[in-house]
Design a protein that fits this description.
The protein has 15 helices and 21 strands. By secondary structure, the protein is an alpha/beta fold. The structure holds NADP nicotinamide-adenine-dinucleotide phosphate. The site of NADP nicotinamide-adenine-dinucleotide phosphate has 32 residues, from helix 8 and helix 9.
């Protein structure tokens, strides 16, 4: 079905003007296209940035109470349309409907949380050495912020970027993933219906290769907040980070360490949730299970038993695991299974398409043992439900293997020795660390972001100070005449 009006520029819904056709398929039944439409052109990207720039002064001067009310209204509208949003998300991204409902609910929670920034993202008064001089800092919006997001949390991720940017007085050009444009359009429709001023939010749905560079390098853009793959994030940072603030949150290769004194059942549950939840398509997914050799057999057995009991199916049937999002991800998953087998890893569970599922990008939850840290399967992000079990001899080796990757997003340790746990938090190279918990999952009141190749490490997203990225801080020494 060909659809229209995917672009929202300066308060007007309009069609894409490029020759790129964007085709959304239901990953559970890819023979049926959900929607096709023309993507945005580079000229439309320029118009969107211009509209955002033109709206910037008025929006940055609105009363904080007005911005705060808008975001509360958006939260209420998201909740009121939760089922429609969740079904749209599942149809285009494939995740189980209960996960989609959860993500939509979280988007509403995010808008409420960041609404408060409009009144609280503030500076400090600081004592001055000179009694005649009043010294303080204040914050002002960057101006126009380009927001680029991936498909795996296609309403939550845009929500925390949009809500933070808007509450602090920025205008936005939002470029969602081409895999999940429908949920992006619904979110912007909600902002439109809530009465956002023309030009304050612009939606450009186009291929990254066509509109991406314009949206990030245009001279009227004052900041870029990106979440996605390390290659794309690095490209954006290399192109513009010397001129404007750039926030990039990227891939991961996250370790879960299990020591002999751990609760094995709890560790197995966490490994399953972290590795196979969301079909392994989370930046914080557990992809390496680093297990002490004394408990390796017991833990492997517990993990395999649980993996084989997971239900797989179309997201609308609410299984434990839906399909991969796209043909590209499907191909990549099976490619990495071949790579691991060729490298000498032992396939102990999964590795195939589930029986009787000929169409759809379905894959069994897959577990490899005999994995060594130098193997590609232990180094590269798979972004699918493939778990590598690596045996280690002691805590020191576990930390060394955990850190032996380019990435540094999340990490977890299961142990009952809290001194060891603390040492792990100090020694592991990861931006988010769990003790006796899954590598996935985060709470919006806590900062989120990675280290090393997982992040530019400018400012973290979410949490009490996420506004820092979206604002300039100015320092004033005021001596009254
Ligand atoms: P991706 O291919 O890098 O795409 C991300 C976004 O960048 C999409 O909107 C894409 O548009 C756009 N893009 C592509 N080329 C661009 C360019 N030259 N300039 C500007 N934008 C461009 O990543 P993905 O496959 O969607 O997402 C999966 C990746 O995201 C994984 O690596 C995962 O770890 C990472 N991720 C990280 C986090 C985190 O917080 N650390 C969270 C979630 C996901 P098109 O879709 O049109 O190509």
């Amino acid at each position: 079905m060909t659809d229209t009006n995917f672009q929202y520029i300066d308060g007007e819904w309009t069609d894409g003007e490029s020759t790129d056709e964007i085709a959304v398929r239901n990953p559970a039944a890819p023979a049926e296209p959900v929607v096709t439409f023309d993507g945005a052109s580079r000229a439309q990207a320029v118009r969107a940035v211009t509209a955002a720039d033109d709206a910037s002064e008025e929006w940055s001067n609105t009363a904080p109470s007005e911005r705060d009310s808008l975001l509360y209204d958006v939260a209420d509208r998201i909740e009121a349309r939760q089922e429609e949003l969740a079904e749209t998300l599942t149809r285009e991204e494939g995740k189980p409907i209960s996960s989609s409902r959860g993500e939509v609910g979280r988007a509403a929670e995010i808008f409420r949380f960041f609404a408060g920034y409009a009144r609280s993202a503030t500076g400090d008064t600081i004592p001055s050495n000179d009694p005649d001089t009043f010294t303080y800092t204040f914050r002002e919006p960057l101006g126009v912020v380009t927001i680029v997001t991936p498909w795996n949390f296609p309403i939550a991720t845009p929500s925390w970027k949009l809500a933070t940017a808007l509450s602090t007085g920025n205008t936005v050009v939002f470029k969602p993933s081409s895999e999940t444009p429908m949920i992006a359009r619904l979110l912007v429709q909600i902002l439109d219906e809530a009465g956002v001023l023309d030009g304050v939010v612009n939606l450009v749905v186009g291929a990254g290769s066509t509109v991406g560079d314009e949206l990030t390098t245009n001279e009227r853009v004052d900041g870029v907040s990106f979440t996605g793959s390390t290659d794309t994030g690095q490209h954006i940072a290399d192109t513009v980070a010397d001129r404007i603030p750039v926030q990039t949150e990227m891939g991961g290769k996250n370790p879960l360490v299990v020591l002999p004194d751990a609760d094995i059942d709890a560790a197995a549950e966490a490994a399953i949730g972290g590795a196979f939840g969301g079909t392994g398509q989370a930046c914080t997914a557990t992809s390496r299970l680093l297990v002490h050799e004394d408990i390796a057999d017991e833990l492997t057995e517990a993990v395999v038993e649980r993996a084989e009991s997971l239900t797989i199916g179309p997201g609308m049937e609410d299984p434990d695991m839906g399909p991969a999002v796209s043909a590209g991800e499907d191909e990549s998953n099976f490619h990495y299974i071949d790579v691991a087998a060729d490298e000498g890893a032992t396939l102990v569970s999964g590795g195939d398409r589930p029986a009787e599922m000929e169409s759809g990008y379905f894959i069994e939850p897959t577990v490899f043992t005999d994995v060594h840290s130098e193997m590609r399967i232990a180094q590269e992000e798979v972004f699918g439900p493939v778990l590598s079990i690596i045996e280690v001899g002691d805590f020191e080796e576990a930390v060394s293997v955990a850190n032996d990757v380019d990435f540094g997003l999340s990490a977890s340790i299961f142990t009952s020795d809290m001194a060891r746990a603390r040492a792990f938090t100090e020694q592991v190279e990861a931006g988010v660390i769990k003790v006796n918990g899954t590598t996935t999952g985060s709470q919006i009141q806590l900062p989120f972001g990675g280290m090393k190749a997982s992040s530019a490490e400018t400012q973290k997203e979410m949490g009490q100070r996420a506004y820092e990225f979206y604002t300039h801080e100015k320092v004033v020494y005021r001596t009254d005449p």
